[in-house]
Amino acid sequence: MSLTTESQFADIVEVLLKESSSGQASYDDLIAEIPNRITLSQEDLVPSTTRPGEAVWQQRVRNITSHKDTRGNAINSGRFVSIPGGLALPGAVAA
Fold first, then answer.
1. Distance (Å, rounded) from C-alpha 26 to C-alpha 80?
2. In tens digits, what is the pLDDT along the chain, a chain of 95 residues?
3. Nearest to 56 by CA among 68, 66, 42
4. 3, 30, 55, 72: least surrounded by Cβ within 10 Å?
5. Angle at alpha carbon of residue 20, lines to 35 and 31, rounded to 5°
């Protein structure tokens, strides 16, 4: 099994946001729920070298916001919007 991609995590996050009554979720809530939705690989579970206290998979989930200016990213493509400490579906956040 190899690393779960940022795109694969974005697919799971989209499901979680759609299940949320508010269309929003904090990164803490997403990170708590994702392991209940997929089997993380050994590569995913390795400690991050750049974010102490996090596993590589947690960093990849947070990278959805960090990479928002990258073509193909879930925020860049309009699937999500970044909110303080988390993510939301477009339209779930009052302007």
1. 13
2. 789 999 999 999 999 999 999 999 999 999 999 999 999 999 999 999 999 999 999 999 999 999 999 999 999 999 999 999 999 999 887 55
3. 42
4. 72
5. 25
Domain coordinates of the chain in residue numbers?
6-88
85: region left, alpha or beta (phi > 0 left; psi from -120 to 50 alpha): left
**pTM of the entire predicted model:** 0.92
Q: Are 74 and 65 in contact (CB under 8 A)?
A: no
Query: What SS3 class is residue 10?
Result: helix
